[in-house]
Design a protein that fits this description.
Elements lengths: L4 E6 L5 H12 L4 E6 L10 H9 L14 H5 L3 E4 L2 H10 L7 E3 L17 H27 L1
Parallel strand pairs: 1-2, 1-3, 3-4
């Protein structure tokens, strides 16, 4: 399957998924990359600490608006990247037809899942950003090979 679009999913759609979305967008500018949350804080901007950590690394989360994941939304994307195995299981329960296109964001870097930093210490936000960045690098290498090769 050729990947033309990616949906990045977490819980609130204010920390991990907007960061992952922007990291992938920067690395794969020819693909449509968006994000959503399984229990989204609909209409909210990106979390302030996530934004600050991303900004310090040259990644802007400006303009992000949280939105709720729906099965209909998921069908519009070739690949759905989630942060935790529980997110994959939840999508499978909501929309079993999406399971085959749903993978962990850190699939190529260890598949342990990326914990939610929300409300935790600054170091957790920094660790989360580093893990998301490494995983985005790995996805861009894999997906570029398919596009270029």
């Amino acid at each position: 399957m050729e990947v033309q679009s990616i949906l990045v999913v977490c819980v609130g759609n204010i920390c991990r998924s907007p960061t992952g979305e922007r990291l992938l967008r920067a690395r794969l500018p020819d693909l449509r990359v968006e994000s959503a949350g399984l229990a989204a804080l609909v209409g909210s901007a990106a979390d302030g600490r996530s934004s600050a950590v991303a900004e310090a690394q040259g990644v802007s989360l400006a303009g992000h608006v949280a939105r709720q994941f729906t099965p209909a939304m998921g069908t519009g994307f070739d690949l759905i990247l989630v942060m935790e195995t529980a997110h994959r299981a939840r999508i499978a329960r909501m929309a079993p037809q999406l399971l085959g296109r749903t993978m962990l964001f850190d699939h190529w870097t260890g598949s342990r899942g990326i914990p939610d930093p929300y409300g935790r210490l600054a170091e957790m936000y920094e660790s989360t950003f580093s893990r998301l960045s490494a995983a985005a690098d790995a996805w861009s290498v894999r997906l570029r090979k398919r596009v270029d090769g």
